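User: Okay, second chain of the day. Same drill as before: sequence in, structure tokens out.
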Amino acid sequence: MGLPRATVSDPVDIRELDCQLPLDAPVSYVALELANLLRLPLVGPDDRPLNYALAVKGAGILDPGAALSIPEDTEELKLRVVPHIVIGSADSEALESRVDESSARSSDSRVVPVSETRALLHDDNLDLRSDVRIDAEIRRQIERFAAEDRHTECAGLLLGEVFVENGKRVIYITAAIPAREALVSRTSVELTPEAWASMLHERDIRYSHLRVLGWFHTHAGWGVFLSDSDVFLHRHFFPHPNMVAYVLDPTTGRDGFFSWHDGKIGLCPSYALVGDSSAEWNQPTSKKKRKLRLATGAALSAVLCFGVVGPYIVKNDKRQVEPPVKPVTVVQKTSPHTKEPTAPIKTYILGKKDNLWKLCKRVYGDGDLAKPLADYNGISDLARLQVGQEIKLPPKETLIKLRETRPLRLD
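Assistant: Same drill. Structure tokens below.
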């Protein structure tokens, strides 16, 4: 019998290839080779080797430590390569104890590609301006998931459809799958292969009619931004122009979408809430309910004034007017000129290898705020920072003003 043949894709089905798999090789070795063939990163944002596993589409995960063995009666094997990756700042010592370095080393396994890598997404009109929309009930479901423990981070997948309306590329999110198998802490989410396999299995079984449009995660008290590890995850595992990241801070209620702009990831100036449905987690949306309502040019101005548009239904590129079913509300993100309520002062306990520059880069997105943060906390000597020291974290605007008003040194 020849080598077993499989079709293998990346975690979110952007590309795939056909290959022959070596029998009796460790699954972790085979997964690493396949990750390399699919142009997935082999080193993570912390410069540690990334581990990968193999998840069977529509089923579970293969034991990474076991030898690869395919049942003889298997006619068509479809696999996904899924990473073990940490979003945020996990405790490095705890992570080291869980990482299996064996899969990051070279192996004698030899995967034989029998096809070129194929693109699975063939979206047109990528030059059009993106318009991000999310079903209002789906956002509430994400909020409820985050509220289960407001002091730890959480994550999950976003699903939906993409279409063109009034010269815009609409990214419409109609479902979400929480990563309930992930390992979480106050500052990180660890997406294990089991967490990926659980989410993707749910997608295959219940949401096969929808595509992955990105991911969501929370920052428990840290605000709405993308950390270096967040950007790494999005850039390497959600690289398609129609994939977005949704960030929610459950302690303040602030949120925002990040999307691709000219090859860079940036905050969307606004997004739209669609309708007021009563869908539940993991409840597939019927085709009838999934028909997309599109606004007329005249009603588009009503979005800003009244939060309601006259909808359309799109089916087979034929459009017809229908009475309003799902209102669309545009959520405008705060501009620098908008006055907001004073945010509460948060605190952070310094850990090993922490410094104020890294802390400011992670929390405020600007490491140069380290000196104003030191001044705010009455720290005159940055070399004397101690593990366990409490650092007060005022709003970013406070540190910017402090930096601007600090007297210039006359050296």
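The radius of gyration is 23 Å.

User: Thanks, on to the next one.
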